[in-house]
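debug: dumping io for the single-chain case to check the tokenizer round-trip. Nothing else runs in this session.
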Amino acid sequence: MNVTQLLVAVVGVLVIAPLWIAAVGVRAVWRSITWLTEAQTRISELEREKLGKLARMSEQGAPDALVTRLLAVETGLESQKMLVSDAVERVTALGNRVAARQRRAAEILEDDEEPESNGPTPEQARALAKLLGGNGEQAPITPTAPASGLSLKERAKLHRAQRGGNG
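debug: decoded output
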């Protein structure tokens, strides 16, 4: 194979390859155009086939029942959409309220660093008894402790720990 044959082969490839690519491109464009035309034709046929019946029904005076029914269906659909959106809104609001209550309760229990008092001191109880004694009422002289020996705050923490451990 000499240089001239090689040069002719290269030029042939350089000419044939773009022509081949152009032919494939033109074929693809032609198919897309004909496909689009066929699709539009089919859509028009379907519209004439289906909507033609409705048009004939509306021209003959039967549309009142049909239009009424269509309007009722559309109204029902819209009311269902509104009902669902209202339900979602209510559930969201309820969830937000519950979450806010839980956050506040957690903050109160965690941030409550005041010492727990088990009632008045013995001196305060005696003074209270003297004050109430003049009214004919009996007041306890000494404060009573909770049956378990735990304060309200400690019982709440214990209950919360037990619930968290079980669930």
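debug: round-trip ok. Residues 2 and 104 are 93 Å apart (CA to CA).
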